[in-house]
Amino acid sequence: MSGPRVVVLAGGVGGAKFTLGVREALRRRDAPPATVVVNTGDDLWLSGVRLQPDIDSVTYALAGVNDTGRGWGRAGDSERVNAELQAWGAGWPWFTLGDLDLGTHLARTGWLREGSTPTQVLERMAGRWELGARLLPMTDAEVDTIVHVRDGDGERAMHFQEWWTRHRAGLEPIRFENPGIADAAPAPGVAEAIAAADVVLLAPSNPVVSIGPILAVPGVREALAAASAVVGVSPIIGGRVVRGMADVCLAAIGVETNTAAVAAHYGARASGGLLDAWVLAEEDASAADAVAAAGVHPIVAPLWMSDVAASAALAEAALAGA
């Protein structure tokens, strides 16, 4: 294999779809499998088990067992155990856990309690399927995302999953925090893979709560500075977010919901930011000049990841931009 060494920073459904495309694009180039650094900021403990939603979304997608209709969880899953938990008044009635998914969470929790690190757990999980990529958590530390929302004249805090799933981001966020992240370290292999990469790709994931926590882990930005090229893919198409409520998250940190603003949020490497190039949608081609003015090379390409072929074409455009 003689193709580029690629690292993807990813989270959520957009990250999972993009990772599928990267895997296909690298196979066509006879390149080594990508290393995928996955957000763990939305992890949580629930009913005594450790959930890692983004880790599972990427793993299930690469394994071909994900529920493509819902965008999360396992295909063909049932919810008998979830119904029983709710009958006992356990867990969150607005947070559904599928039975197959619970099997993953139980296995993970057991291994964690036996002393394995999240990195070791993910390696063990990945061994079940031929994923065609190396998956790493961003950190082995627990750095769950806490959202501070406006409450009358004050504020209150809640776990990101409650804000996102129960309230559908309907409560105005003031800020997002990852307690303990300042003392965290990249998971083993993360910084080394990023620094040695020929290309680092920022998936079209939520810039605030998916990519943001990865970048906040001490040492990650320094590793990115050593990478040969960093290319970001816009999560905005036609001035709108593709999925979820990323626009609410962006507004909370003072970033407009447009592709040039998100590119400026990441910043140009030439001026101390992250990006060498930015892939923006054909629908946003008029913003290419603004991206270029910010010191980032614009690449206009189709961004809709309707299937693996479309995701692979997007990955090819990003790799070519490097």
Would you give an account of this structure?
The protein has 322 residues and is an alpha/beta fold. The chain has a domain at 6-43 and 136-141 and 181-321: Rossmann fold (3-Layer(aba) Sandwich), CATH 3.40.50. Helix content is 38%, strand content 18%. A 7-stranded parallel β-sheet has the order 5-2-1-9-10-13-14, with helices on both faces. Strand 11 (236-237) and strand 12 form a beta hairpin. It is globular.
What is the number of strand segments? 14
**Shape verdict:** globular
Q: What is the strand content?
A: 15-25%
Order of helices and strands: EHEEEHHHHEEEHEHEHHEEEHHEHEH
CATH class descriptor name of one domain: Alpha Beta
Number of helices: 13
The helicity comes to 25-40%
**Main beta sheet: strand number and arrangement?**
7 strands, parallel
Given as residue ranges, the uncertain stretches (5+ residues, pLDDT < 50) are none
> By helix and strand content, what is the structural category?
alpha/beta
What is the third-level CATH name, the topology of one domain?
Answer: Rossmann fold
User: How much is the average pLDDT?
Assistant: 96
Using the CA coordinates, give the radius of gyration: 19 Å
- The CATH homologous superfamily of one domain is termed CofD-like domains
State the end-to-end CA separation. Answer: 19 Å
- Please name the CATH architecture of one domain: 3-Layer(aba) Sandwich
Largest sheet, spatial ordering of strands: 5-2-1-9-10-13-14
